[in-house]
Predict the 3D structure of the following.
Amino acid sequence: MEEEAQLAQTLPLDFAVHNIQPGDWVLVREWKEAPLVAKWRGPFQVLLTTETAVKTAEHGWTHHTRVKVSEAPEIWTSQLEEKDGKPRLTLCRSGLEQ
């Protein structure tokens, strides 16, 4: 019986089938497809990887075929200034610094 159990187990891969690393940003594909609804959610930052899966805080472990690499999200900042006695709001955007 022990030999049968050993035959049923698969050996781990010796190589990764994706090039995603911890710290990368990815989009995760939705399971349900509906018309006029976004198929990809994110971006989410990758926390851990295995040979065939990636882990994000929001989605847990996801198979590599359900994710794609994305750019880091933009960060918006605002500054409230007063010019000639009138308030002025300035918005600036920048990418995340890694």
DSSP finds one helix and seven strands in the chain. The helical segments are 2-8. Strands lie at 25-29, 40-49, 53-56, 60-63, 67-70, 74-83, 86-95.
